[in-house]
Amino acid sequence: MKRLITSRLPITTLSHRFHVQSSCFSNSPQPNLSFRSPHSKLDSPPYHLSIPEMTTAATPSQPFPVRFYSPTSPVPDSCGRTLGSILAWPDSALEYSHDYIQNLFPLPERSPINPSAPIIDEQTFTTFRSSPELQNQLRSSLRRMLQFYGFELTCNPRGTNTAAEDLAYQVRPGPNFRSASRNWVTRFSHNHLRITRIIRCCRVLGLETEASAFFDALLRIVEEKRGVISQKTVMFWRRAAQRPLYLAPEEEDDRGRGKEWLYRFEEENETQGKA
Fold first, then answer.
1. Which residues partner with 157 through β-bridges?
2. Chain centroid to CA 85
3. What is the pTM for the complete model shown?
4. For position 239, what pLDDT does the model report?
5. pLDDT of 37 strictly over 50
6. Among residues 8, 152, 204, 224, which is most buried (max CB within 10 A)?
7. Radius of gyration of the chain, Cα coordinates, nearest whole angstrom
8. Nearest by Cα to 183 from 62, 68, 36
9. Buried b / exposed e across 84-95, counting CB within 10 Å, b at 16+?
10. How far apart are CA 244 and CA 183, in angstroms?
């Protein structure tokens, strides 16, 4: 399978030095790469996804992200790859493939780079936020990408309740941080955009605590490596982590309303909070 590496800059709000065009990787959990990461010998072992039971199977009428993340009847993406097969890829495949991240972490906004990528519509939003099973699936994707970046996600119950909403999540450097961070603790990296996407997706689909923990961990690394990661990149991470959900990180007008259904959701939450 041929892969073309071009030097053109993608149209985006964050700077990249390289843009890699790649066609679909095989559905195999161990793709046969025609090129390897310079740190591929440090690749982590395959990641194994724990599939919980879901009381209601996904139906063909549901949005693609719901069906892709379904733990009982998952559908593959347009390249024939399932969630489990992507999460089992080695780190080098996650680094060099550029057409899977939109499936793992869709956004409410359509991608200017890949306009055919799935998006979060209102039905996806409400379905994920009402389904602990789907959120647990999304959490598995977050864990895998955190591992790819050299972090690990830990959780501890608040008090005696072990329900998901009562868990305190933390993100901290893992044992592979030194090698894994070489791919993104740099001035320019396509992973900076990926991280913005991951934080925003997790917040929108109900993993606010985990997204906040990831952002806090990133800020600690930015402080330790002062001057390495640009302030513009940090600004986008901050917007993804702290802005109202209806405002995308690339939106320059803080007075905008963004997605109307997200605006209504935030308004209702604010009203209930004041009640």
1. 167
2. 16
3. 0.80
4. 98
5. no
6. 204
7. 18
8. 36
9. bbbbbbbbbbbb
10. 30
Spatial separation of the C-alpha atoms in residues 33 and 89, rounded to whole Å = 11
Burial 220-242 (b: 16+ CB within 10 A, else e): ebbeeeeeebbeebeebbbbbbe
Question: If you search the block for the tokens 């959490």, which residue do you land on?
Answer: 139
- Domain borders along the chain are 4-242
Place of tokens 């961990």: 217
Cβ neighbors of 217 (< 8 A, separation 6 or more) are: 151, 171, 172, 173
Q: Please tell me the distance from the alpha carbon of residue 194 to that of residue 147, in angstroms, as a whole number.
A: 14
Report the pLDDT value the prediction gives residue 159, as an integer from 0 to 100: 58
Say how far residue 183 (Cα) sits from the centre of its chain: 16
3-state per-residue secondary structure call for the chain: CCCEEECCCCCCCCCCCCEEECCCCCCCCCCCCCCCCCCHHHCCCCCCCCCCCCCCCCCCCCCHHHHHHCCCCCCCCCCCCCHHHHHCCCHHHHHHCCCCHHHHCCECCCCCCCCCCCECCHHHHHHHHCCHHHHHHHHHHHHHHHHHHCEEEEEEECCCCCCHHHEEEEEEECCCHHHHHHHCCCCCCHHHHHHHHHHHHHHHCCCHHHHHHHHHHHHHHHHHCCCCCCHHHHHHHHHHHHCCCCCCCCCCCCCCCCCHHHHHHHHHHHHHHHC
Above 90 in pLDDT, residue 74?
A: yes
Nearest by Cα to 121 from 135, 103, 136, 108: 108
Q: What pLDDT is attached to residue 156?
A: 80
Distance (Å, whole) CA 70 – CA 18: 34
Q: State pLDDT tens for residues 161-198.
A: 555 555 789 999 999 999 999 999 999 999 999 999 99
Tell me the two tokens of residue 73: 């009847």
How far apart are alpha carbons 55 and 152 in whole angstroms? 29
Cβ count near 146 (within 10 Å):
21
